[in-house]
Design brief:
mainly beta; three-stranded antiparallel sheet; two-stranded antiparallel ribbon; 5 strands; globular
Length: 76
């Protein structure tokens, strides 16, 4: 919807960098004969923290900005 904003934890998967561990959608991953491995398709993914079967899903909306997370606090 126009004018709405959605904020989520996510990441960008460059080509052949993120292994597709489980996925029911054939269009969300691609096979590399060179590596004999299935990878997530290049694009933006939302991090899913409370699903048993999946740890990320494709973001089909247009991503207009992102900000990396800060470094974790270090214990002294």
């Amino acid at each position: 919807s126009i004018g709405r904003r959605y904020v989520c934890d996510g990441f960008y998967a460059a080509k052949h960098t993120e292994i597709a561990y489980s996925c029911d959608d054939d269009s969300a991953y691609e096979y590399s004969e060179e590596d004999d491995e299935y990878y997530l398709c290049e694009g933006w993914y939302e991090v899913i923290k409370n699903w048993d079967d999946y740890n990320s899903i494709v973001i089909s909306d247009f991503v207009v900005g992102w900000q990396p997370l800060p470094e974790p606090l270090k214990e002294e």
